[in-house]
């Protein structure tokens, strides 16, 4: 019994990581299969999805490899428009400054996104 509880806690851990796209109706860590299918349109932690969007650069941290973007809706990953921080692939932040309007590609895993390509408009 104790072992089962520990496994459940380990499974639940990644789901609890911070992310701006956490939804109020977030699924339980272990959802019944039928319920999981019904939620196929939601971003699931194990599913990496790719999307494209436009945005305005709010902040750049080249040392940390992060960029904050006020981005448009990204329908491919089910995100609405908002301002959030992304991690960025090495190199994509070169020449990018606060205030730039950009087109970017993003890979979303769970509730976090990584900018894989970025180009000024
Ligand atoms: Cu966002």
Helix content: 10-25%
Unreliable spans are 13-18, 23-28, 36-45
The coarse overall form would be globular
Number of domains: 2
Give the distinct bound molecules: copper (II) ion
Order of strands, main sheet, comes to: 1-2-3-5-4
CATH superfamily of the largest domain: Copper binding periplasmic protein CusF
Q: Give the percentage of residues in beta strands.
A: 35-45%
Radius of gyration: 16 Å
Topology as a string of helices (H) and strands (E): HHEEEEE
Major pleated sheet? 5 strands, mixed, barrel
Total DSSP helices: 2
Overall mean confidence score, pLDDT = 78
Q: Which architecture of the largest domain does the CATH hierarchy give at level 2?
A: Beta Barrel
CATH class of the largest domain: Mainly Beta
Give the end-to-end Cα distance, rounded to a whole number of Å: 57 Å
What would you say this structure looks like, in words?
This protein has helices at about 1-15, 35-40; strands at about 50-60, 65-70, 80-90, 100-110, 110-120. The protein is of the alpha+beta class and about 120 residues long. It folds into 2 domains: about 1-15 and about 25-40, no CATH class; about 50-120, Beta Barrel (OB fold (Dihydrolipoamide Acetyltransferase, E2P)). A hairpin with a 2-residue loop joins strand 4 and strand 5. The protein binds copper (II) ion.
Draw up the topology in text.
Elements: H1 2-15, H2 33-38, E1 48-61, E2 66-71, E3 82-88, E4 101-109, E5 112-120
Parallel strand pairs: 3-5
Antiparallel strand pairs: 1-2, 1-4, 2-3, 4-5
Copper (II) ion (CU) is lined by residues 20-21, 71, 79, 82, 84.
